[in-house]
Structures are given as C-alpha cells and as structure tokens.
Amino acid sequence: MRPWKRRAIAIAASLLCIYVLWLGYILIRHRPHGESPAPRQSSYFEVRGAYHMHSKHSDGLWPVRKIASAASKQHLDFIILTDHGNPNRPSLAEQGWKENVLVLAGSELSVSRGHMVALDFEKPEGTFAQDAELAAQQVAAAGGFSIIAHPYSKTRWSWGGAIAPDGIEIVDSDSMIKKNFLSALPYLPALLFNPRLFLLKTLERPIQTLRKWDELSATRNVYGYFSADAHLAYGPLFSCFGLHLLLKEPLAKTFDEARNQVFSALRQGRFYCAVDAARPAGGFLFWAEDGSTRFPMGSALSLTAAPHLRLRAEAEFASPLEIRLLRNGETVLRSESGGISFAPKEPGTYRIEVYLRGKTPLAGDFPWIISNPIFWREDEP
C-alpha cells in the first residue's frame, strides 16, 4: 500500500474515533431524564397528551390501536388524531379508550388558504366547504373549533380574509425535521440509542409563528399548540412535544365525559405546551388574580372586571431555567427563580416562556415551556 493511502486511512480512522468519542460523550451527557417536579398543592388536575397525528386512515403508517399503544408507552393520557379528510369519517369512528389512552379525533381539512384542523364538531351530513372562511364557519356551526396547521411550512397558510381561527400551531415536529435534517445530521446515529436527542437538535425558534400568534391574539382569544404532526416514528415524536391540560376534576373514565373535559380545556386555553423530550415539564402554573379571585391561563378579562390584576407563574424545577413574561410579544420581566409575580400597568396579551439553562440539548432560544395567554383588554365601548 502506498504511503499516502496509509496516511489517508490513518487520518480517516482518527477522525472516526474522534467522532465516536464525541457522540458517546453527547449521548452520556444528554441521556434521557426521568425526574419530575416536587408535588405541590393545586386546584387543577394535570393531564398530558399529543396533538396532530395521522393514522392509516390517511397518510400515516400505523393503525389507530398501534398508535394508542405507542402513546401508552410514553405515559400519555390522550392523543388527538387529525387524519386528512373533509371530514375523515373512519378516523372519527375510532375514538374511544384504547390501551388506557383517550383517543380523540378531528380532521385536517385542505381549504383554499392551506390546512386547517377542525376539532370537536358534530359530523356533518355532507362535507365541509373548500373555501377557508366558509369551512371555518361550518365547523363553528357544527359546534367545533379550528386551528391553523403549520402556517409557515409545507402547505403554507395564505393570510387574509375574515377567518378568525381559535388556535395556531406554533411549531410542528414534521416540518422541523425536514427543514433542519442536514444540520442535525451529526446526531443521526443517536436515533439508535436516544431518538429524543436527534429530534431536539432539529428544533429552532419558531419566530414567524410566535410573531403571528401575538398579532392574532391582540384582538381575539387565539391559543397556541405544539404539534407532533406524526406520520411514523410515533413513540419518539410523542415523547417530544406535549400538551399539558389543567382539568377541574380528574380525567373521567367514561369516554363522552373525558372527551368533553379535554376539548373544553383546549377551547378555554387552559393548557401549556412543552418540549418534554428535553425535560419533563409537568407542574408548571400560570394564572392571574384580582384580590381573592383567581383566573387560569386562557382567561380573557376586562379592566373593569379585574382592575387590580396580578400575574403569577410557578416553575419549580430542579434544572436551572429562565422565566420570561411577555406582553404583546415583548419581554417585560425575566426571572431565574422558580416563579414570578407581576402587577401589569397596561392592558395587553400576557404569556410565559420558560427556557432551560445549563446542561440541555435544547437550543438556548427555543422555549421549553410556552403558556397560553391571559388576555387583559380595554372595556368594549
């Protein structure tokens, strides 16, 4: 063998050895965590689930029961199917308790402006309209609510018109993986040992959707969602993004009652989004109070109804973190303690972002937890 070939092989072997050692260090440093926050007194019962996934009833890989089994292994309380359709009747027919997981279903509608998820509606006799504004009206008339899906990726949403969404997807795993696959490529072998690590390395701050959410929330109650948008790899994706709902009572055992509990919490914005793959997030709280009256996140209040408002948040976790309180998308308070207390002087849309600090594979500018807002508005004329 020629000397230059031996040198090339030696260099390649050395680089491979360095890469293996580096990846091994990363895997050890960021191995999955199982800790949870210390128990605390709360008037709510927290449940965790995953939103936006596709089964064999549209373009997903698995049947519904197998998806429910994957959710059960991730200790989820509920999942929400969003198979494509207008609506997708076979998917709606499979709702129920499966593998000790509450399986709910809506439909992802392809409308004139993009994709819109419809939830908690009475099945229509026919189909929903293809026109976005008319479809949203029909969903509402059928008792449901609508969420704009992946507005700045894949099938992008065309803004304008009179449509008034109830929710917006802040980020979705499917788009993040496709967009940032190359930058996360060095972590690809981690899929064999710790798939969460690879998923976390695909995440970047969703600047556009956060800005649009704050803009929409200035005039109406719009709630934000972390979306799994799972078509395959359901287990790892379920471990990544979670919706944490705060219920007034424990999740019921009967399907109809449990379904109503989950959808009611979503309608009222009584939930927060979290990157549970980075660190378990259960136990976060954000609320407002005026005297002895307490208002959960998602509440819409007027200056007259709550003239002496105080905003509070609790994030008592072992990990170092930073809490930011935002008004209309702008940070008004930062704290590195386990909570905040703030008396706002101006009306606006207030929400919380929590960032992990210290040892974490999550990008420093990607929120670990995002609360839904508390809307404090001027009185109507």
Verbal overview:
The chain has 381 residues and is of the alpha+beta class. The protein has 2 domains: 39-277, Alpha-Beta Barrel (TIM Barrel), CATH 3.20.20; 280-381, Immunoglobulin-like (Sandwich). The chain has 9 helices and 21 strands. It has helices at 3-29, 64-73, 89-93, 132-141, 173-180, 195-200, 207-216, 234-240, 255-267, and strands at 45-51, 78-81, 96-98, 101-105, 107-111, 114-119, 145-148, 167-172, 223-227, 241-247, 271-275, 285-290, 293-296, 300-302, 310-314, 321-327, 330-335, 339-342, 348-356, 369-371, 374-377. The strands form 3 sheets. Strands 1, 2, 3, 4, 10, 11, 14, 16, 17, 19, 20 and 21 form a 12-stranded mixed sheet that branches. The longest helix has 27 residues, at 3-29. It is globular and about 85 Å long. It starts with a helix and ends with a strand.
Tell me the CATH architecture of the largest domain: Alpha-Beta Barrel
What is the mean predicted local confidence, pLDDT? Answer: 91
What's the CATH C level of the largest domain? Alpha Beta
Kindly state the number of beta strands. Answer: 21
CATH topology-level name of the largest domain = TIM Barrel
Classified in CATH, the superfamily of the largest domain is Metal-dependent hydrolases
| Helical run tally | 9
Beta-strand content estimate: 25-35%
- Helix-strand category: alpha+beta
Specify the helix fraction band: 25-40%
Number of domains: 2
Q: Name the shape in a single word.
A: globular
Model regions low in confidence, pLDDT < 50 over at least 5 residues: none
Instruction: Give the H and E element order.
Output: HEHEHEEEEHEEHHHEHEHEEEEEEEEEEE
Distance between the termini: 88 Å
Largest sheet: 12 strands, mixed
Based on CA atoms alone, the radius of gyration comes out at 22 Å
